[in-house]
Write the structure tokens for this entry.
Amino acid sequence: MNEAEKSKMLVGTEAAKYVKDGMKVGLGSGSTAYWMVKALGERVQQGLDIIGVPTSAQTEKWAQEFGVPTTDLSEVSALDITIDGADEVDQNLQLIKGGGGALLREKMVAIAADKLLIIVDQSKVVDHLGEYPLPIEVVPFGWNLTAKRIAALGYEPTIRLSGDTHYITDNGNIILDCKFGKITQPAKLHEQLIQLVGVVETGLFINMTDTVIVGNQGGINVLEKK
């Protein structure tokens, strides 16, 4: 296991400690969330009583593999906590998510929770969002026109591929990855994009988290919103 994977395991295991008996838990997606789900599975085997709401088909498979009971978001009124990863975290704890393609479900599960806990390795912590291409989920119908509307705002959308075909989300949509450079006003950018017809959701998660657990060489660091 390389150092990056060790950091992911460390923060995923630490995040699982925030989950208490009787909680309804949003289960995030991605390689760091894998370790969190695994750690929760170990605690379930020891008697922890929880129910999880997966944010992707892949996460649901991990939950089944590790013995974490799950339900659908439509079956719960609210969640106690959601634990998820991120592609970028800035100094104000604003996020870019969606590198794994699950941004819509991730945001729906995140806003249903009383607390959103983000887990990342040190490489994901940045001064400004935007070096990582921003994922935007759009409907397939007329997607090229939606891409042109985004491009008209001065940005560079590229359709995400899976092999030789368009990447399809769990919701049957496609993703445009957009290069923005430095994003200095993420809330304004999100509002600008979400108003475009054809855009389903953006990977900008604004004012949604107060706590980020960061893995670095040999340990963890907890960032709290100022």
About this structure: The mean pLDDT is 95. The helical segments are 3-16, 31-45, 57-66, 103-111, 143-152, 186-194.
